[in-house]
Amino acid sequence: MITLRSPSVNSSTFVLTAFSGLEQQYPWISIPFFTIYTLVFLGNCMVLHVIRTDPSLHQPMFYFLAMLALTDLCIGLSTVHTVLGILWGFIREISLDSCIAQSYFIHGLSFMESSVLLTMAFDRYIAICHPLRYSSILTNSRIFKIGLTMVARSFFFITPPIINLKFFHYCRSHILSHSFCLHQDLLRLACSDIRFNSYYALMLVIFTLLLDAALILYSYVLILRAVLAIASQEERHKSLQTCISHICAVLVFYIPIISLTMVHRFGKHLSPVIHVLMGNIYILFPPLMNPIIYSVKTQQIRSRMLRLFSLKIC
């Protein structure tokens, strides 16, 4: 068994944790993780390629899907080097600066994904409730501005607490709970006054993730009301079908977050392996599933994917 060295309390490095007690099995455990990361990269790159190369997909709905795929791709890139690095034995420690940078991108990209899902809900609301005004509301210039606003909203507001991590004194054991760095994990190891970061992070979650979830739910209440007002049952079904992919993507994003929060809050008695596994599900499940969901449930993406594969086979 590999014994992890606990750094000095004054050290500027932190020990990353994978599946404690299963170190001898890391080469085997790395196989499914490598496969998942490969599928994340290939799936999201394929979605981006299809949308970029097919002029018929240059529409607001698919622009937002491209933003989602790009966000998922970046989430995979932000964690792959530490997760696989540990399992392959290349990495065991991470510097404070690298840890803070990784935490910044992980949390920023999570907020970005929430923002994109909210925008996609708005897109579906306009398409179903105001179809005649759809093209005039979601113009290319407006979509570009929405994209910039989402990036600014996701990364600007998390900057103060993340920068603050640099000035904390970390006097406790420098062993992290996951194979990547999270803001709350670093707070757990700090001996400085963390009240600003704790309260700020709570407010940020309330006014981003929770607010986004509430607005998404509200948009679907309006969508459902509009759909039920449609006389034709066939038209109702057709309208709801356009929302299925987005609803699945919302569930795929929020269920792991809720599950990880519950494990952190009520599962302190659980094995550390469970915490590590839930952390990796939170990071990898949405980027893995979103390309699959949209390839299966969205007819335009599915047909282009099939055409792409048939061309490659030929």
Automatic annotation (TrEMBL):
The keyword Signal does not apply. The chain crosses the membrane at residues 29-51, 63-91, 103-122, 143-163, 199-223, 244-267, 273-296. It is a multi-pass membrane protein. GO terms for molecular function: G protein-coupled receptor activity; olfactory receptor activity. Residues 43-294 form the G-protein coupled receptors family 1 profile domain. The keyword Membrane applies. Signal peptide: none annotated. Pfam families: 7tm_4 (PF13853). Keywords: Cell membrane, G-protein coupled receptor, Membrane, Olfaction, Receptor, Sensory transduction, Transducer, Transmembrane, Transmembrane helix. One of its GO terms (cellular component) is plasma membrane. One of its GO terms (biological process) is cellular response to lipid. It is found in: Cell membrane; Membrane. It comes from the Eukaryota. Putative odorant or sperm cell receptor. Belongs to the G-protein coupled receptor 1 family. This is Olfactory receptor. It comes from Gulo gulo.
